[in-house]
Amino acid sequence: MADHTIALAGNPNTGKSTVFNALTGGRQHVGNWPGKTVARKTGTLDHAGRRYAVVDLPGTYSLSAYSLEEIIARQHLVEERPDVVVVVVDAANLERNLYLTAQILEMRGGVVIALNMADAAAAKGLSIDVEALARRLGAPVVETTARSGRGIEALKAAIAGLVDEPLSATAEQAAPPATAPGVHIDYGTEVEAEIRSLAQALEAEPGLRAGRGARWLAVKLLEGDPDIAARLSGLAGGAAMIAAAAAAAERLRCALGEDADTLIADGRYTWIHAMVREVVQAPPIERVTLSDRIDAVVTHRLLGIPVFLLAMAAAFRITTDVSGPLLEWIAAVFDGPLANQATRLLERAGLGGTWFQGLVVDGALAGVGGVLVFVPVLLSLYFVLAVLEDSGYMARAAFVMDRLMQGIGLHGKSFLPMLVGFGCTVPAIYATRTMRTERDRILTGLLVPFMSCGARLPVYVLFAAVFFPRHGGSIVFAMYLIGIGTAVVLGALLNRSLFRAARSAPFVMELPPYRMPTARAVLAHMWVRTSGFIRRAGTIILVVSVVLWALTAIPAGDGTFGDTPVEDSLFAGVAGAATPLFAPLGFDSWQAAGALVTGLLAKEVVVATMAQVYGAEVADEPPADATPGLVEDARFVVTGLARALADTARAVPAIVGLRPFDGEAEETPSALKVAIHADFSRSSDGHPTLAGLAFMVFVLLYTPCMAAVAASRHEFGARWMWTSVLGQFAVAWLTALVVFQGGRLLAG
Amino acid sequence: MLARILAAIELSGGAVDLRTLARTLEVEPGALEGMIQHWVRKGRLVARAGDGDPDAGGASCPSSCVVRAACPAHEPRRQ
Fold first, then answer.
1. Which A residues in the span 454-513 are in contact with B, Cβ-Cβ below 8 Å?
2. Taking CB atoms and an 8 Å limit, are B28 and A506 in contact across chains?
3. Is residue A60 classed as helix, strand or coil in its secondary structure?
4. Which of A8, A368, A461, B41 is at 20 to 30 A from A392, Cα to Cα?
5. Which parts of A498-628 fold into alpha helices (H)?
6. 3-state SS string over A436-491?
7. What's the pLDDT tens digit per position in A262-281?
8. Contacts of A502 in chain B (CB under 8 A)
9. Which residues of B touch A437 (CB under 8 A)?
10. Does B22 touch chain A (CB under 8 A)?
11. Are B46 and A402 an interchain contact pair (Cβ–Cβ within 8 Å)?
12. Looking at residue A33, which CATH number applies to its domain?
């Protein structure tokens, strides 16, 4: 049987449990608070011939009734009336920790302050005048570092000193000392007058007070404390007292323009702030950390955005340029050695030249290759994202860009996926993972495909060469601007309709400290995210590839499966059926429609399809040689990889400079240009340039490739994937319609 | 003090770092978090879940808060 009881109170993460362990040693019992799921730790302390029962209260920031932990802690202090309350305070965060301390001291005496983590405070250069603090608080203060046991004996002595005082023996006496407040905070003339009035009324109602201090109860009633109100409402005179408190609070609100609980909280904070300024000495010159120095530039109002743009440009370049050689290598391996060896194997199995060979080589293998070529891009992107996130920069980027992006209802972090979208939509959609809210992720995911990906560039270059031979560069650049403009307008519209949210400009954000990313964490990020893409997108694109191949292999009329000219295939028939849809846009040939359909598989395919269906040959296609042998193919793979790695290494220094449109456009066969011009002239009723421009705009804005669609489904679900697919198609169609028909009207 | 905090956030007109705000107001960052939490409970600041430290698993206020749009300095009393 314990002689006395001790309660340990404190904020979370103040080392309260360590103090509890230091006081009780191994004599502990862990259970639950009666009727609650919150853990209750109890133990015993033997000191100077006395036995104390020690209860570890839940960690709380205040004694208000906002959380279960706060209610439990308060009920224990009010109803169980421990002889001594030890308030464990983090010395390095004194100002915040003293709020709970002040509330406890307002409630009762018999309190000792354990000024814990004194070593951490000293490390921060803080010097605390312990004696002055004890005087101001009206309670003993003991410096402790519970982790090392420092100050624990002094704390025990302070506890014993309090129980030696004849304070807690007479709980129900007129002025029980444990309920006599340790401090009296002055809340200002008006508030104090109301507190006094209520306290006087409560003094006359011992049944309502039930041993609680009248002033404390008056303050709680003024604060509108729901727990206290519930307890008093069932007692005689309780309802009248609650009504009187509500009337007092209303008078204060009218007089001071603020709720009573805010006035009281403000009084406590002001009292604490003044005390901390008196007893705590910070270093004479504020310590400016390395993080502060970096942030002075990185989050600067003017410098922050250029720094962010540079960081994002580097991310963009790494994602596209550095991974480019490896991407090309994988594509070449699939097109060359893997296709060769698959063909060889099928020939040996007697299936050479059959439709099955077409299915395996042109369908399945090309489909899988179409997915795997994105892997270097994704790995590069996730490497950059992991480094930016783990270093703490991403929070700064959001901080800097938030204001700009809010114009279209987006978060600052949306800028990165947008930028990555200029390289490839697939990693850009996955990059939306850096945003934490579903709303921001989905809205960004819907807008990202409007950023013109690199795969669309060959289409622009080809059509600019056909229809705008003297202004090709400007037209291509205009495509990028149209994509950005569409995203901005659509974002603003969606933000005011489907994605309406209560957002406003000012916000406070806690920036995490900078830290060095670890190789293990970065690699884990890269693998987890990339493997998900391979698994999910790979299956979908494989199926679509096979289906599309089948459509080109099936004859529309007479013919042999797998050996049918593309213009006689079911594909041409299906594409032909879609031509009325494109007639108002100025291009209603099955060739153009077919190119757009295959563009759903990959945007790079648009030009290749046109080259095939217009009966022209692309100049840089390799000549058909005899199938290389296994050794030759293996040599090709190894030397290709070495060359790709060397090119990748060479690309790294180039990241510091941007080289948009640096002449990567392929030489376009003149026959193809002539054929396209002739076809668009026919289909546009003599406005080929407008039709060409409408086609470019359509390619820019319409449904992204299947890999991007798969990524969209993976990230946002089927509903948003279809919204994106159909929505983009509608936007593309309407914009192209405006370009073509509007242009015709203007041209007269 | 509490009114100063709210006014400073409203006047910032954009993103403001907790530590910078704490330094400006000469308040410990931890205490400032507590004060911000008070305004969140009062509905005058709104916790914007999901920002802040990426490792916080979608930290809620006080790691990041926004001032509620169209919130008057002295909002009507809630019943």
1. 502-512
2. no
3. coil
4. B41
5. 519-553, 570-582, 590-598, 605-613
6. CCHHHHHHHHHHHHHCCCHHHHHHHHHHHHHHCCCCHHHHHHHHHHHHHHHHHHHH
7. 999 999 999 999 999 999 98
8. 46, 68-69
9. 48-50
10. no
11. no
12. 3.40.50.300
Domain assignment of residue A685, given as a range = 308-621+652-747
A165 lies in the same domain as A209: no
- Contacts with A, B 47-66, CB within 8 Å: 48-56, 58-59, 62-66
Which residues are bridge partners to A28 per DSSP?
Answer: A43
Query: A147, A179, A211: which is the final residue of a domain?
Result: A179
On whether any CB of chain B is under 8 Å from the CB of A424, the answer is no
Q: Are A452 and A425 in contact (CB under 8 A)?
A: no
Rounded CA-CA distance A179/A216 in Å is 9
Residues A321 and A430 in one domain: yes
> What's the total number of domains in chain A?
3
Q: What is the largest CA-CA distance in chain A?
A: 110
Q: What share of chain A is helix, strand, coil (3-state, %, to 5)?
A: 65, 5, 30
Phi and psi angles of residue A116, each rounded to the nearest 5 degrees, phi first:
-85, 170
User: Nearest CA of chain A to the CA of B72: how many Å?
Assistant: 12
Token output for A127: 């010097």
- Interatomic CA distance for residues A581 and A247, integer angstroms: 71
Task: Tell me the per-residue pLDDT of A549-577, one tens digit each, with 9 for 90 and over.
Answer: 788 778 877 777 777 777 788 888 888 88
Global pTM reads 0.60
Are the C-beta atoms of residues A468 and A475 closer than 8 Å to each other? yes
> Does any CB of chain A come closer than 8 Å to the CB of residue B40?
no
Task: Kindly report the nearest CA distance between residue A506 and chain B, in angstroms.
Answer: 4
Tell me if A337 is assigned to some domain.
yes
A660-664, A693-697, B7-11: least confidently modelled range: A660-664
Is there a contact between B31 and A508 if contact means CB atoms under 8 Å apart? no
| pLDDT computed for residue A493 by the predictor | 86
At A66 the three-state DSSP class reads coil
Question: A132 and A198 share a domain?
Answer: no
The verdict on B7 touching A (C-beta cutoff 8 Å) is no
Q: Is A272 in the B-facing interface, judged by CB distances under 8 Å?
A: yes
Give the residue from B2, B18, B48, B51 with the most A CB atoms within 10 Å of its CB, the best one to mutate: B51
| Average of per-residue pLDDT values in chain A | 82
Choose the closest CB to A273 out of B16, B19, B27.
B27
Residue of chain A whose Cα is closest to the Cα of B11:
A506
Over residues A503-556, the pLDDT tens digits come to 544 566 667 778 888 888 888 878 877 786 677 556 666 776 677 778 877 887
